[in-house]
Automatic annotation (TrEMBL):
This is 4-hydroxy-3-methylbut-2-enyl diphosphate reductase. Dimethylallyl diphosphate binds at H54, H87, H137, S235, S236, N237, S280. It comes from Bowdeniella nasicola. NCBIfam families: ispH_lytB, PRK01045.1-2, PRK01045.1-3, PRK01045.1-4. Its EC number is 1.17.7.4. Catalyzes the conversion of 1-hydroxy-2-methyl-2-(E)-butenyl 4-diphosphate (HMBPP) into a mixture of isopentenyl diphosphate (IPP) and dimethylallyl diphosphate (DMAPP). Acts in the terminal step of the DOXP/MEP pathway for isoprenoid precursor biosynthesis.
Amino acid sequence: MPAVTPGVDADPNRKILLAAPRGYCAGVDRAVDAVEKALEHYGAPVYVRKEIVHNKFVVETLTKRGAIFVSETDEVPEGARVVFSAHGVSPQVHAEAAARQLQTIDATCPLVTKVHKEAVRFANGDYDILLIGHDGHEEVEGTHGEAPDHIQVVNGPHEVDTVEVRDPDKVVWLSQTTLSVDETMETVDLLRKRFPNLQDPPSDDICYATQNRQVAVKKLAPECDVVIVVGSANSSNSVRLVEVALEAGAKAAYRVDKADEVDPEWVKDAQTVGLTSGASVPEILVRDVVTKLGELGIGRVEEVRTATEDIIFSLPKNLRADLKKAGYQPDRPHKVREPKGR
């Protein structure tokens, strides 16, 4: 990202504080890459159940390349190839796909898969599982489907008083991976007051990328007249970033899908604008917002880095195997090259 915006009349005394890390996490990168590689290798169409990630631009781009997004498995023609989104699916969805003889590519984020496995393990131990998350979110639906008789969803602190369990000594909490860390822990603290023996998950369920993006926003927000978050309305982690910015001291915060949604009135009197993006947002959309802010008179770009991410997830196993059979040997996860001599 350039240190100076491209705006001709941009004022160098007005600046953008650009959060880092921002944008694609490893799970999103893997899921999007899986659809792209499937289209390249198998050819269009490739069906995708739900949005592969919660970002309009990504979905529109993949649609143009030949991906067909559907809401339910029964919309996929029998025997066709379907990719399951990064948010994960329940065992019932896997069974439905098998019944229709679909060729599946499971692009579930490995961190979501970890939560699924935790749910199964605690259900096998006959625990009541309190899943902190948002009803209706695909990730929550997938996790709940792993053990529906043992899991109840807690949407936030306001629902804690209504929770009922069979045995207060056999209760554990899990969470959706894309929540606000602070709000989740507030919910957990209230649950623990009701159930003092509440068990924690074996490791953090809120993903590293969600936490890192929230920490970066917390650092820059107190200095900002306004914070702009690039991300779609159905992206849980993007919506949380707006809330985190306001809670951390930003005077105002807004979410946009793309640069042309930035209202000049938001920044006309701002000396410092914070900028970040949700974990499903490609960097090109952030660059477009930087350009837009330059056109609106903001001249400098300063990065505020709080962590460096180097996590990479492998492509889904069956897709990797098919690529290798066709003569492609991945150098490393998601980087596919042609072998020498081709």
